[in-house]
Amino acid sequence: MSRYAKRLDRDLVRWREAGWINTDGEAAIRRDVAAHASKLELASILGVLGAVLIGFGAMSFVAAHWSEMPRLFRLALIFGALFTSYGIAGVMFERKHPYFAHAAVLAGVAIFGAGIMLIAQMYHIDGHPPGAVRTWALGALAAGVVLRSNPALGLAMLLIALWSGWETTLSNEVHWSFVLGWGAVTAAIAWQRWSGGLHLAALTLAVWIISLGYVLFNGDAHGVVVAIGLLVMAAGISIPIVEPKLEEFSTPAIGYGMAIAFAGLFALQFWQDTPLDRLILLAVVAIALVLGVIWLGLKMGSRGLLWLGYAGFSLEVLALYFKTVGTLLGSSLFFLSAGALVILLSFLAYRLHARVQPNAEVAS
After folding, report:
1. Burial classification of residue 54, based on how many CB atoms lie within 10 Å of its CB (0-12 exposed, 13-18 middle, 19 or more buried)
2. Where are the beta strands (DSSP E) in 171-264?
């Protein structure tokens, strides 16, 4: 049972006991949810796992006899397996078996990537290795768009990240072409209205922005990362005011912006050789940032922001402890300061709850 279904089950019981819905209404709601729910049948799951195992078995067999096969037969085998996978995917989509279809699409994308490397090996093509990953990503993107496969688009996004990371590692420079690849895959994800894919795209972009701090300006651009994160947070806070229809993007923008800004502040504090006075100032800013996110989480009713703020606060306090204990004013003063901050956080939460609760009672 999904988290939504579990929560709805509890809410339905509470609403029925409160007299807001009757037994017939509760049953009708449950039937509607069950009818529109995505059912993971055991047969479908076992079928996908079986297809994966068969695929690995076939790949192992081919690898063991690869050198013994004629070159023309190898090419026919690669392209035959590729088009067979996509053909099976099309049939499965037509017959309303999406799990089998997506498994076949992923198999085709995997064969496409393996084919790139095997053909390069057969014809002794010495190219730029990250370029092969880029071509693989483009193939995954094409498969995801043509066959409307979200898993293929997710793989394309991961391959774009791998391509960019590899290029950056080899050149030790900012790989600006990542933005083009990321934009193309993100546009396809948005076109298919895949909310999970949008989170994957946001996470990938956030990681790339954080990496700028270690590459841009000879690795001294963490301040730029902090500024970008704060701008993203400001945009997230402004979304409901500027365009209420886009309010659903407000919380994710605040969360990803906070993560980016916090990562930049963390690097400024603990990655570089930071003087004590600057360390204290940056620590105050970082703690203020996470406290602000916790406050926003309480105000907006977002558990995600709350847990993100709690995680940032814990990480900051723990890192400060290892950085300053025995050198600042002793561990006792450190724990006293940390305790005071936690009490302040508790007080803010209490005041906010006390302010919101009467309004909720009046509204009801």
Report:
1. exposed
2. none
With 50 as the cut, is the pLDDT of residue 307 above it? yes
Amino acid found at 193: R
Cβ partners under 8 Å of residue 211, min gap 6: 165, 168
**What's the DSSP call for residue 270?**
I
What are the φ/ψ torsions at residue 325 (nearest 5 degrees)? -60, 130
160 CB burial (10 A radius; 0-12, 13-18, 19+) = buried
The domain locations on the chain are 1-36, 209-364
What gap in Å lies between CA 327 and CA 280, rounded to an integer? 13
Type of residue numbered 92 = M
Q: Which of 48-52, 191-195, 313-317 has the lowest mean pLDDT?
A: 48-52
Angle at 31 between CA 29 and CA 33, to 5 degrees: 70
CA-angle at 299, arms to 297 and 304, nearest 5°: 20
Query: Nearest Cα to 343, choosing from 313, 311, 300?
Result: 313
More confident residue, 243 or 134: 134
Q: What pTM did the predictor assign? A: 0.79
| pLDDT-derived band at 213, boundaries 50, 70, 90 | very high
Residue 359, CA distances (Å) to 240, 276, 356 in order: 20, 45, 5
Establish how many alpha carbons lie within 13 A of residue 247's alpha carbon, considering only the half-sphere containing its beta carbon.
6
Tell which residue, 235, 286, 292, has the closest CA to residue 261. Answer: 286
Which whole number is the average pLDDT over 253-278? 92
Two tokens at 264? 């930049």
Residue 20 DSSP class: S
Strand residue runs (E) in 86-221: none
The structure tokens listed for 14 are 């509470």
**Across residues 254-264, what is the average pLDDT?**
97
Residue that has been written with the tokens 């498994």 in this structure: 103
Residue 195: what residue type? S
